[in-house]
């Protein structure tokens, strides 16, 4: 009843559902207010789709794949469209960066960088497919047999993306899916849908045929669930939390769909004493530890929220880390000089407070933060702000060390030997990313080889390359995004065996 009343009141809601080349409202008229996390106030209204909208979008994608031109479009034309999209992203960089900042709470500069990375992803997959040959020739051991392995699009791809990097995560799925010749439906997070809507508009402007790209803005329990279970969906790609990802996988299993899941991480940042042997090296390691833990208020799947530091340098390192963390400038992402924005929602703020409270109850030592900041001109009291927090004297028995916080919280554990450092780094159900800091190259290579994480940085944290695979071990998910493997997720492999001189086999005497 509430949603019906709200739908009638908000007549100016954006048409954010795109089906078969047309922008529309939700079929039942429902809407959702989108909040600015810096002020906890609505700043726009979008359509709130449901299962019927999902069905319509999937049907459009199915028709476009089975009957439309896109799957058979020459590779060169598909690549050219992806490059046009990249150019449009560059053109709209400032507008999209600002929209990402206001929607997700991150700083405008972070939003701009996201747009740059999205353009890079589209260009990378354009270059990747244009550089491929017609197929792999297989030596069948006979001059009368021609045998090749070719790759074809999967079909209709359903994509579900998270709220922390809405534009970036959408591009990691959309670019390879289109490069491979698929059609798709996408559901961005209901909290941060705006830049994904903008990206679909750019695809439309670039000339993508109607029905190839479809978007339904709405909640996961209706739209996302329908995507996962629908019989006309051939692949489901999900980025988000472990619990939701498990439900997606279970629903997809009924139809034996292809599934790609990226489910977060609990990422170690291992710092050896020899990485701090000079003042410059010490400053770099501390600076990178701040970057690892607190960029985008820690709302990053690969955030280095677990500092694992050699005991001999722990006190000096943590004291300096806490001093600098306490000076990070919090505020609305659109304000000048702000280094870190708010959390995305009240739910995320409450969750972060709960993890810090449990850690202190379990014996952690608070070195800085641990509370909401005082309001200021750039930091309204109603906003979802939380101070960067450093928790010392942590151990693996604590929830805050085991579970993904997705907030500006850094835990500190210590070690004395390399084997102990490795054991701590690998003592997690996740395995998305991790880093090791050392001036000893042999030690660095040993640690990198033995760490059970999909990405291991040596003397760095957070960079990724569109040409290198991204994904994790264990409960961080299955499959990979980016790189050649990221394209392969959106393809089926087919073997074509041609007998050039067919003759009777005479297997059966009659």
Provide keyphrases for this structure.
510 residues, alpha/beta, Aldehyde Dehydrogenase, Chain A, domain 1, Aldehyde Dehydrogenase, Chain A, domain 2, 2 domains, 7-stranded mixed β-sheet, globular, Ald_DH_N, oxidoreductase activity, acting on the aldehyde or oxo group of donors, NAD or NADP as acceptor, Ald_DH_CS_CYS
How does this model look, in words?
- There is one protein chain.
- The chain is of the alpha/beta class and 510 residues long.
- It folds into two domains: 267 residues, Aldehyde Dehydrogenase, Chain A, domain 1 (3-Layer(aba) Sandwich); 191 residues, Aldehyde Dehydrogenase, Chain A, domain 2 (3-Layer(aba) Sandwich).
- 39% of the residues lie in helices and 19% in strands.
- The strands form five sheets. Strands 14-15-16-13-12-17-18 form a seven-stranded mixed sheet, sandwiched between helices. A six-stranded mixed sheet has the order 9-8-7-10-11-19, sandwiched between helices. It has a three-stranded antiparallel sheet with strand order 5-6-20, with no helix packed on it.
- α10 links the parallel β12 and β13.
- α2 packs parallel to α8 and α8 packs parallel to α9.
- The N terminus is likely disordered.
